[in-house]
Design a protein that fits this description.
Layout lengths: L11 H10 L3 E5 L6 H9 L5 E5 L3 H9 L3 H9 L4 E5 L7 H10 L4 E6 L3 H5 L9 E5 L32 H7 L3 H4 L6 H19 L6 H13 L7 H8 L3 H13 L3 E6 L4 H6 L3 E4 L2 H7 L8 H4 L1 H20 L4 E6 L5 E7 L4 E6 L11 H9 L7 E5 L5 E4 L2 E5 L4
Parallel strand pairs: 1-4, 1-5, 2-3, 3-4, 6-8, 10-11, 11-13
Antiparallel strand pairs: 6-7, 8-9, 9-10, 12-13
Length: about 400
């Protein structure tokens, strides 16, 4: 039985441990509360030669901002090739120059975490390619919750890491899969999510100097959460939130840079057409999405929005697996001018895998018109398509289409 007070195993544990043991450096980005600090502490605890710089602490941040070269001086003063942990690295981008020097001179290895790439991009920070390996930590995946029964998507296999977690798939669709939520008592989850939403709003308002626009941004955030999983209509959002269309686009960029939304681009062979087609946006966590859109945080929400919530959670799982296990796979969607659509297209360069997502327990061939059309149009690149369902068993729907239960994909 997994103790609710014991840190949950994460897929990144093995890879990070292997690299840090070789004295290599890592950068782990992820939204707030996904477990970055907990993950780091596992490698720091018991390590006598380690140094910590929690940049969310104002005194530490001010010291490093006033003189970033102090990092070099303090590491050289420590000696012995320490493991240096920098938390919320985006808060002092200038430190990355000092990190580069110390890595190049083989004086330390680093574990850097951060919840936003926005400030790093704006500062033109070199994210140390070749020196520091970059990872993304997401909310808990199916295998980290112990929900996997078997694997039928052989290109994105997953396995269970934790056992005996008292957290259901339906709870994941309502409350999301942030580690803190999973380990909380059910009655405390709504307050946690509301506090998370308020903290994110307040922190980003401060970071982006949007204090005069807090009302408009707050309204936009609520609307964007409700539109999660769609290609948003910027004009409509502009009218509803009271901000200009360029501002709406910039707000979406902010959400993407702070890792709050996942952008899914259309699958098109023509690069020109790709630029003319709109992207879909998925909130990174369903619990946060539900809280931001002011949905009732109760299990009955699954019945009220089953199709939307099911598609959302399956898409997030596919995006996370592709990013974690197969970094060369692109996750797209496909839609024709006549309205035919495939929810997810896994692009493996030499071939593609089309996947439809339906919350029904079983589907018929007539329910798979989008898949059928895609398989016919791209028959040189794919020979089989899948439908992820709420059902209990894998079924053959047509000669080249199979349905797979969500926990066997």
């Amino acid at each position: 039985m997994q103790s609710k007070y014991k840190p949950l195993k994460r897929y990144l544990n093995y890879e990070l441990g292997k690299l840090l043991a070789k004295r290599q450096s890592v950068l782990v980005l992820g939204p707030r509360q996904v477990g970055k600090t907990t993950l780091a502490k596992e490698y720091l605890d018991g390590n006598a030669n380690q140094m910590e710089y929690p940049l969310q602490n104002p005194s530490v941040r001010l010291e490093m901002e006033s003189d970033p070269s102090k990092l070099i001086k303090q590491v050289e003063g420590k000696g012995g090739y320490p493991l240096v942990y920098i938390d919320e690295g985006q808060k002092v981008p200038e430190l990355f120059d000092s990190v580069q020097y110390l890595v190049d001179e083989k004086k330390a290895n680093f574990m850097i975490t951060g919840s936003s790439a926005r400030k790093l991009k704006r500062a033109g920070v070199n994210l140390l390619p070749g020196r520091v390996k970059r990872f993304r930590l997401d909310p808990l995946m199916y295998g980290e919750l112990g929900l996997i029964k078997s694997n039928n998507l052989v290109d994105l296999p997953s396995k269970n890491l934790n056992k005996g977690i008292s957290y259901t798939f339906e709870e994941a669709m309502v409350y999301g899969t942030l580690p803190g939520i999973v380990l909380l008592d059910a009655e405390d989850r709504p307050d946690f999510l509301k506090a998370y939403s308020e903290t994110y709003l307040e922190e980003e308002i401060r970071a982006e100097a949007l204090s005069r626009k807090i009302g408009a941004f707050s309204k936009f955030l609520e609307l964007a959460a409700a539109e999660s999983g769609t290609s948003p209509n910027f004009l409509k959002l502009s009218q509803q939130s009271g901000v200009s269309q360029p501002a709406v686009k910039e707000y979406y960029n902010l959400l993407e840079d702070t890792l709050i939304v996942e952008r899914v681009d259309p699958y098109l062979v023509s690069a020109r057409k790709r630029l003319l087609s709109s992207s879909k946006y998925y909130m990174f966590d369903l619990g946060v999405r539900n809280a931001l859109s002011r949905m009732p945080l109760v299990l009955d929400l699954v019945n009220a929005q089953k199709g939307l919530l099911f598609e959302h959670t399956v898409m997030l799982e596919l995006i996370r697996r592709a990013r974690l296990f197969k970094s060369n796979i692109r996750v797209n969607y496909w839609r024709t001018s006549s309205g035919l659509e495939v929810d997810c297209v896994l692009d493996l360069k030499d071939r593609v895998i089309p996947i439809e997502i339906k919350s029904a327990s079983s589907v018929k061939a007539s329910d798979c018109k989008g898949l059928t059309a895609f398989l016919a149009e791209y028959k040189k690149k794919c020979s089989i398509g899948y439908v992820i369902t709420y059902g209990g068993k894998k079924e053959k729907i047509a000669d080249n289409i199979y349905s797979i239960p969500w926990n066997e994909m």
